[in-house]
Write a structure and sequence with these properties.
The complex is a heterodimer of chains A (109) and B (118). Chain A is mainly β. Chain A is 0% helix and 59% strand. Chain A is built from no helices and eleven strands. With 118 residues, chain B is mainly beta. In chain B, a hairpin with a 2-residue loop joins strand 7 and strand 8. Chain B is globular. Chain B starts with a strand and ends with a strand. Classes of the chains: A mainly beta (109), B mainly beta (118). At the A-B interface, strand 4, strand 5 and strand 9 of A face strand 5 and strand 10 of B.
Amino acid sequence: EDKVVQSPLSLVVHEGDTVTLNCSYEVTNFRSLLWYKQEKKAPTFLFMLTSSGIEKKSGRLSSILDKKELFSILNITATQTGDSAVYLCAGGATNKLIFGTGTLLAVQP
Amino acid sequence: DTEVTQTPKHLVMGMTNKKSLKCEQHMGHRAMYWYKQKAKKPPELMFVYSYEKLSINESVPSRFSPECPNSSLLNLHLHALQPEDSALYLCASSQVGLAGRLTYNEQFFGPGTRLTVL
């Protein structure tokens, strides 16, 4: 059965801290690994990773995929209160996305 | 226009009602999706349409009936729902990949409809 597991389930940090969120996956016909940020409503896209070892960056966020070990990490440096959200990781298969349960990040001032 | 819109934002219905959720996108995406999300849980895939044809039904009960009248619109018709169907219903769209493959492309999500079944 396909599954995506994220850790930690929740995390509380202070502004300025660096955080690393983890995602491991077992997905049949795996094609890509996607990261989304979900605040109150719809998930918003962060990254899509298809190749191992190539880091993708967007401002203070970065992510990398290891297809041999079947995991990905999302790093956020110099965290801000606006980074508080649920971060969802999803494994993209041939016809679907399988979401993990998410990591709830709370950034305190 | 990189937006997926959904109406209504909130819906309260009784178990005997018939209602519909609507989703619209104008990004030229030919794949559209319905997800159900319960509180503190990840989105769960319900249906996938590709080129206006239903390609995936994740064993969803027949009280949920999807419809894709054209490439920009996706509806979800609701009838005889149960209280446990109360959830956030998310619509998403994406490009269709090479050879008609789906969803390893980025999906754009709408804001969702918060459904409460009494």
